[in-house]
Amino acid sequence: MFERYGGQEGARKGHNPRKHGRPSHHPLLAVLAEAHFIVHGWLRSGDCGAGRGVVEFLKEALAPLPERLGVRVVRADAGFFDQKLLGFLEERGLGYIVVARLTRWLKREAARVEQWRALDEDFAVGEFRLQLFNWDRARRFVVIRERVKEKQDSAGKKLLDIPGYTFRLFVTNRAERPEEIWRDYNQRADVENRIAELKYDLAADDFCLQEFFATEAAFCGILFLFNLLSEFQRVIGLKGFRQPATLRTQVFLGGALLGRAGRQLVLHLSSAWGGLEKLKPLLDNLMSLVLATSPKLGMPVMT
Fold it and tell me: Model-level pTM greater than 0.85?
């Protein structure tokens, strides 16, 4: 949620875990986790649910992707636990792992699981198949059971019928073992990192204008900037992804003084920047970078 302080268009009261009752805008993002790339983004009014418009959103997100770029799996939290979304993913042949919303029926089924396979002394896994009301088919549910310890917070929910444990449920169309489904989903935390970087490194929630579509345009501009920074790192050969704030201090900000040595101009670089020897490969990559221009401009390729 992007908290707002004013009467801007689309700023509505909705589910805001940090500041209850505060008007907000509700962004929706699709992220390629391994590539650190934001495929698509919508800015929505603060009172809309997490899954509102998600099928149309995914259609837009998937449309420009090249056919050779296959999406291995779609991961989503409980806000997207919906027959319409699952049916769309199955129709497109996409694998998915979605956190199940613990309704009364799912709690009952989880309590009925008898075959548990222990992963260690605290965690065990099970599974079942169930067709919920208004669903067009039965689907696979993976259950993660965790033993509750004193003075420990657990990510799952408690079931009254089975004290001493918390449970997490995932619906999936993948065939891997339950623990592999669980570990795969846990990589979704990368999305939370991208959201934090947009907010705290690039101030995505600070650009708010009176008109909603102006605010959304600013939001999309920040998403574009994030992707440019990711592509910049790939092109110049940086090892490992660096957050925008880290990139700013380690690459873009370097103290320097322009001086002379005899009749020669000399650029003195700050040692705090890392020194020329450390950054010479980066500078060489930048100097040799080929920038292709749009054919519409009728300009030659520049180096």
Answer: no
